[in-house]
Amino acid sequence: MGMFVKALEEINRDMFQDCGGKAAHLGELTRMGLNVPKGFCVVAKAFFEHLRANNLVTQVLKIAESINYDDFQDLEQKTSEIRSLIESAEMPREIENEIIESYQHLSKEEPNPFVAIRSSVAVKGTSISSFPGLMDTYHYIRGSKEVIDSVRRCFASVWTARATFARHQRGIDHSKAIIAPVVQLMVNSEVAGVIFTVNPMGKEDEIVIESNWGLGETVVSGKVMNDLYIIDKRTGRVKIRQIAKKERTYVQKANGLGAEWVEVEPVKMTEPTLTDIQIDELRRVGLLIEEHFGYPQDIEWAYEKNVLYILQARRAKVEKK
User: Fold this and answer.
1) Residue closest to 214 by CA, chosen among 223, 206, 204
2) Kindly report the CA angle at 87 between 83 and 92, in degrees rounded to 5?
3) Could you tell me the sign of the dihedral formed by the alpha carbons of 7, 10, 16, 22, in that order?
4) Has this prediction a pTM greater than 0.90?
5) Does 321 reside within a domain?
6) Which is the most buried residue in 44, 57, 97, 320, by most CB within 10 A?
7) 320 located within any domain
């Protein structure tokens, strides 16, 4: 597409140093022909150019060097200061133009579609390409200005207190942190969740699915109880089916912009979120992705109007026996 933006179909699994792990995997999944929401990646080069053009590199690292990691208040205050610098800086015009043009061509039906903007990360010169849950995601973003503002906030989220502390704990040089926001058409899901193509407790012959009403944040946030399905990997037989009482869900705000937590309708609280047909479809797609990558997968998915979308895939963490 350009110097600072790449369509997902232009990206493959080996491009994580340019596009971060999430975009690299989404690009690979798109190339596989799976139903991935259309989108693009604002590549890492844009993040570094944003810092350079606004003379922020030295300022940011100077503040970072002064952080007292034994003082949570100091960590919060100084990372907040860094984020403010990045968020308030003007996006270089050439980057802004590429993002706007790509956004306006995402949908043939709607010139200003709703999108989700997610962080895609890596660390320069290493194989690290994932820091799950440490950077920010934005849902139901609409309009060129809002997309630019959200990309800038996504840039800044590389300096959340939790992400900064995680890098410090792992001995990672902050200057090597890469962030490459992914902008995708919003999936307004009725049900969403995760699938592990191997039971995280170490049972390789089982698949685990967690699901809930609304957006995937409902499941991955850890704030509510989710439905749990454990499936025989080979036969597809559902070995365990635990239907939770689902009291809250994360959905589009009433005004359309952004998402919020709301109470689940009483009639749906104890209703299963998935049909047997959907469970088997998730199993088959999960195995296809696992076979392609060659190792167990942790996959985020969503159903909108009974159509399955794949939102993310990464190597699953498995507890050693």
Assistant:
1) 223
2) 130
3) positive
4) yes
5) no
6) 44
7) no
Tokens standing for residue 94: 């050439």
E strands, the chain, are 5-7, 39-42, 115-118, 121-123, 137-141, 177-179, 182-185, 191-196, 206-213, 227-232, 238-242, 248-252, 259-263, 297-304, 307-315
| Domain boundary, last residue among 185, 219, 252 | 185
State how far the Cα of 26 lies from the Cα of 203, in Å rounded to an integer.
27
Give the whole-angstrom CA distance, residue 272 versus residue 260.
Answer: 22
Same domain, 162 and 203: no
Determine which of 94-108, 129-143, 186-200, 256-270 has the lowest per-residue pLDDT on average: 129-143
Place of tokens 């597409």: 1
Distances in Å between the alpha carbon of 208 and those of 132, 192, 283?
19, 14, 9
The answer to whether the Cα torsion of 209, 212, 215, 216 is positive or negative is: negative
Q: How far is CA 229 from CA 78, 190, 199, 257, 306, in A?
A: 43, 18, 11, 32, 19
Under 8 Å between Cβ of 211 and 193: yes
Calpha distance 88→81 (Å, rounded): 11
Q: For residue 150, count other CB atoms closer than 10 A to its CB.
A: 20
- Express each pLDDT in 7-65 by its tens digit: 999 999 999 999 999 999 999 999 999 999 999 999 999 999 999 999 999 999 999 99
Do 154 and 204 sit in the same domain of this protein?
no
For residues 10 and 76, what is the distance between their CA atoms, to the nearest angstrom?
A: 37
- Among 298, 317, 299, 296, which Cα is nearest to 308's? 299
Q: List pLDDT tens digits, range 205-254.
A: 999 999 999 999 999 888 899 999 999 998 999 999 999 999 999 999 98
Cβ–Cβ < 8 Å for 261, 250:
yes
Closest CA to 118 of 100, 132, 128, 107: 132
